[in-house]
Amino acid sequence: MVTGVMKSGEIINKAPVVTGLVNYEQAGKEFSWEAVKKELFLPDNPAKKANIAYEAIDKHAQSWRKNKVALYWEGPDGTRQKYTFLELKNLSDKCANMLRSIGVKKGDRVFIFLPRLPELYISIIAIAKLGAIAGPMFSAFGPDAVRDRLQNSEAKVLITTQELKERVDTVLWELPKLERIVLVDYRKEYELEEKDVCYATLMKDASDKFEAVGLELEDPLYILYTSGTTGKSKGITHVHYDMISYYITTKWVLDLRDEDIYWCTADPGWVTGTVYGLWGPWLNGVSSYIYDGRFDAAKWYEIIQTYKITVWYTAPTALRMLMKAGDDLIKKYDLTSLRYICSVGEPLNPEVIRWGVKVYQLPIHDTWWQTETGAIMIANYPCLPIKPGSMGKPFPGTKAAIIDGKGNELPAGQHGLLALQPGWPSMLRAVWGDEKRFREYFSINGWYATGDTAYKDEDGYFWFVGRADDVINTSGHRVGPFEVESALLEHRAVAEAGVIGKPDVERGEIIKAFVVLREGFAISKALEEEIKVFIKHRLAAHAYPREIEFCGNLPKTRSGKIMRRLLKARDLGLPTGDISTLED
Ligand code: PRX
């Protein structure tokens, strides 16, 4: 509950809290991950052998929560389903047996290319039960993005739909390691191809008794691919031990309690949807709502009203779009069930927080983390005042710092690199198949370097400044310029391409491409459109350049590297800085 909004040196104070994280300072002093482990695991589980699926689902299915709804699901056509913890246990047991029947073993990579269907969630649990490694992929990905992930991970099985499989058909010949394709929506009129199997038929024959495989806590759980400045996207690999972080951050940052109905709007193809869409709430035995539909302001408010959502985890772009949809729309709905709102993925503008206080009577709590950190690392907590525009304070037991290029900590107020001291449970364990890129994260004197720049104020609050590299953040989606440039070069008309993030009021940044055409191609609106559609279809709907500028040449270093920094400075009319390495 908001108790007051001070405009000067703006602070949003809140009433004292009595559950969850009650006292931030004290929790920090007393914190130990061992204690969290003890709290999460049943006393008779020594945690030598464990499985996140047991802790998140099976344990509750054997407790008083067995008939509690774990998953409320709604499809784009309004179809509604719900699953109790016991039902999810039985279905994921069946699914684990089904996957075992087609040869999936511990350590195998099983990739999932599905809309947010219940089968997506059931498969993720089943894969964990088997000790196999899940690779959730966003359903808007194009053939190249899917191929790169399946190729790099050497995935053995792909779970998808008939419609999405069509998108993969063109690249199947490049995936010799892929043995089986499980179709969840298979209908008789389709002819199954060589590798195809039908989810429903196999599920029908599978037993619903499966004992989650006892794993070492360091056994891998999932791989999510994310972009850097150079090269293809990196397979960020997480392990079962992550659950310690998921459990306690969900409890203390998202403030989830048994009586909550929680809605995380992210897709499991992004880390937020995997960690806080399913594992975090279920480790805490909380009911999670999933909507498999597109953004629509009225629909979103209707969801909150209908399901009486109490805790909502969403993103700044969505909040900005809701703000744009207008306050009159809000008056049509009863949103009084909401008690706590959090945001992630991009800078959360102070005006959005002020607006939240006005229209929802609730402050929005920013949280900062990354695919690599596996869990929330810096946040605004229920028990602390909010400084609008700040990401908040490090999670208890976590050391975050602002450092220079040598790893020296910088004093309050000074801009520098945002770094974390390694040692939290959900830190990435590998970049799949690429030890060198994994080690790069720790190359500044042993710190984990986040790639972000930020500063800390006198009160220990962290403020986001930007990326230290060229990575683009568009609507909270991380996009590597190199990947877009590579895809652009595959278009027949493109000779050279340079890609930058351009500030945008709604999306944070949009992707802008500077393109040099090949001989024989003329600049036209039609060609521009063709290139946009080409990228949308190959890479992903969110990764296409909304703006294309045709130019005669691109600024390059003498070694031939495109100077994106210079493209950006020129585009925004900013000082161009040091251009001594420029080609001519
Ligand atoms: O630049 C930061 C931005 O998103 C990056 C991480 O992206 P990704 O791995 O896709 O994970 C996003 C969701 C966990 C960060 O390096 N970012 C994330 N949260 C915030 C943010 N930027 C500003 N404020 C945030 N709260």
Question: Can you describe this structure?
Answer:
The termini are far apart. The chain is an alpha/beta fold and 584 residues long. Adenosine-5'-monophosphate-propyl ester binds next to helix 10, strand 16, strand 22 and strand 23. The site of adenosine-5'-monophosphate-propyl ester (PRX) has 21 residues, from helix 10, strand 16, strand 22 and strand 23.
Ligands in the model, by name, code or SMILES, are:
adenosine-5'-monophosphate-propyl ester
Radius of gyration: 24 Å
Structural class: alpha/beta
Low-confidence stretches: 1-8
Considering the protein shown, what is the CATH homologous superfamily of the largest domain?
ANL, N-terminal domain
Shape: globular
Biggest sheet, in brief? 9 strands, mixed
**How many separate structural domains?**
2
CATH class identity of the largest domain: Alpha Beta
Strand order of the largest sheet: 4-3-13-12-14-15-16-17-18
The appropriate CATH architecture of the largest domain is 3-Layer(aba) Sandwich
CATH topology of the largest domain: Rossmann fold
Strand-residue proportion: 15-25%
Terminal-residue CA separation: 60 Å
Number of strands: 28
- Measured as a percent range, the helix fraction is 25-40%
Mean pLDDT across all amino acids: 94
| Structure annotation, total helices | 18
Write the layout of secondary structure elements.
Elements: E1 2-6, E2 11-14, H1 24-30, H2 33-40, H3 52-61, E3 69-74, E4 80-84, H4 85-101, E5 109-113, H5 118-130, E6 133-137, H6 143-153, E7 157-160, H7 162-169, E8 180-183, E9 196-198, H8 199-205, E10 220-226, E11 234-239, H9 243-252, E12 261-264, H10 271-283, E13 287-291, H11 297-307, E14 311-314, H12 316-325, H13 327-331, E15 340-344, H14 350-359, E16 364-368, E17 378-379, E18 393-394, E19 400-403, E20 416-420, E21 430-431, H15 435-440, E22 448-456, E23 462-467, E24 472-474, E25 477-479, H16 481-489, E26 494-504, E27 508-517, H17 525-538, E28 547-550, H18 564-572
Parallel strand pairs: 3-13, 5-6, 5-7, 7-8, 8-9, 12-13, 12-14, 14-15, 15-16, 27-28
Antiparallel strand pairs: 1-2, 3-4, 10-11, 11-21, 16-17, 17-18, 19-20, 20-22, 22-23, 24-25, 26-27
This protein binds adenosine-5'-monophosphate-propyl ester.
